Amino acid sequence: MLKSDVAELLRNNAYPGRGIIIGRTPNGKKAVTAYFIMGRSENSRNRVFVEEGKGIRTQAFDPAKLSDPSLIIYAPVRVLGNKTIVTNGDQTDTIYEGLDEELTFEQSLRKREFEPDSPNYTPRISGILHIENGKYDYAMSILKSDNGDPACCDRFMFAYDNPKAGDARFIHTYQGDGNPLPSFEGEPEFIGIEYDDIDAFTKLIWESLNEENKVSLFVRMIDIESGEYESRIVNKNVK
User: Fold this and answer.
1) Complete DSSP assignment for the chain
2) Radius of gyration for the alpha carbons in the chain, expressed in angstroms and rounded
3) Pairing with 54, which of 62, 92, 230, 232 sits 20 to 30 Å away (CA)?
4) How far apart (Å, rounded) are the C-alpha atoms in residues 89 and 123?
5) Which domain holds residue 50?
6) What is the rounded distance in angstroms from the CA atom of residue 120 to the CA atom of residue 182?
7) Which of 238, 237, 239, 235 is nearest to 35 (CA)?
8) What is the mean pLDDT of each run of 10 residues along the chain (239 residues)?
9) pLDDT of residue 1
10) Contacts of residue 148, Cβ cutoff 8 Å, sequence gap at least 6
């Protein structure tokens, strides 16, 4: 499989929606994840990422302009022991609670399906990073309507054991802009990570996102040996 340039993918797609990247730094020492959100409506664009415990939460930038919190206010990132969960909705909590009850990532997501936002039926995309005893693996998932038919939910799971240095996968909600928005198709895109430095990688992703539609970005790098991590948050809305 050919490795794609994530910056090029983002620059050529004005509206990938929400996206998750998971992989490994070129030096092989750190696990990497990134999560971004975009918006077309005032309600979607009226958001920021804020830290919450070891994870993050979305929050209204201007509470007075928040018209519907149901699908835009949630915790995209939560940490349970040596597992980091990253999703585009409140299924973060479903996965967290399932893992806490000794269910698997896949079993936990059996309780959920795509978002009820007709006519888009936005896919629920999720990822989980597992680091233990110097070993690293991750998994990704997408739950989507069957070609726009809300009567059927298609469930896809992808697992990556011992990912190679400099390799990553990228999954996002939409193929591009449209009305209705076309859901992501296929397996997560195979991309490269060129930077060991979190600030350089954060800058690359943020500057590659469509200027009009981008809202917020979260990036985390986790040391595979120690489990220590560092994170960055970039919000277009800054007070």
Assistant:
1) -PPB-HHHHHHT-S---SEEEEEE-TTSSEEEEEEEEE-SSHHHHSEEEEEETTEEEEEESSGGG----TTT-S-SEEEETTEEEEESSTHHHHHHHHHHTT--HHHHHTT--S---TTT-PPEEEEEEEEETTEEEEEEEEEEEETTEEEEEEEEEEEEESPPTTEEEEEESBSSS-SSPPBP-SSPEEEE---SSHHHHHHHHHHHS-TTTEEEEEEEEEETTT--EEEEEEESS--
2) 17
3) 62
4) 10
5) 6-235
6) 7
7) 235
8) 95 98 98 97 96 97 92 96 98 98 98 97 98 98 97 98 98 96 97 98 98 98 98 93
9) 80
10) 119, 121, 180, 183
> Would you say residue 20 lies in a domain?
yes
In angstroms, the CA 217 to CA 2 distance is 26
Token pair in block for residue 138: 């991750």
CA distance 118 to 45: 19
Say which CATH number the domain at 97 has. 3.60.20.20
* 26/9 Cα distance (integer angstroms): 20
Is there a domain that residue 189 lies in? yes
Domain count, the chain: 1
